[in-house]
Design goal:
five-stranded antiparallel beta sheet; 3 helices; 15% helix
Length: 170
């Protein structure tokens, strides 16, 4: 019977070591297939139009509620991405590009160029600048990226955005 508590202790310690820490970010870098790498700080986000996002229920891959983000404000990811220049010989080639958004804990989500710049999805992918009246700099998740019109909102919900990598499909 002594082995059962030992197994429980081993299992719990394994879980705690397998979880990655989410470190708050004060900036993120846009890099990859662009002409000039760019770092965006929280303070830089004020140069783009702020939108009222409202409240967003965060759901997992099965649609189960995992939480709610309230009183959100943010800037469109599309507006921020328009400040960079993609390495492309013609506008026709832009359809070959996509954006990999990465958090400090290694979590990644992907958006295509067309999704952000050529569909209604781009009208609702936000970098959160305020939550419940607090500026992003005071939030534990720091730079938060959110796609509130997704059916499963947690799938493309990034806490502590660190890098946006611009890539080209081969």
């Amino acid at each position: 019977m002594k082995t059962f508590p030992t197994l429980i202790l081993f299992f719990l310690s394994t879980i705690s070591f397998s979880q990655k820490e989410i470190k708050p970010t004060e900036s993120f870098t846009i890099q990859g297939e662009i002409k000039l790498q760019k770092t965006i700080r929280l303070s830089d986000l004020s140069q783009w139009k702020t939108h009222d996002i409202g409240d967003v229920v965060i759901t997992n891959h099965t649609g189960e509620t995992r939480g709610e983000a309230k009183q959100l404000k943010g800037v469109l990811l599309r507006d921020v991405l328009e400040s960079i220049e993609i390495k492309s010989e013609s506008p026709k080639q832009l359809s070959e590009f996509y954006f990999v958004c990465k958090a400090t804990d290694g979590y990644k989500v992907v958006f295509s160029w067309n999704e952000i710049h050529n569909s209604k999805v781009g009208d609702s992918v936000f970098i959160v600048t305020e939550k419940e009246g607090k500026p992003a700099s005071q939030l534990p998740e720091s730079i938060l990226l959110l796609s509130p019109r997704d059916f499963k909102t947690g799938r493309r919900h990034i806490k502590s955005l660190q890098v946006i990598e611009v890539k080209r499909a081969q």
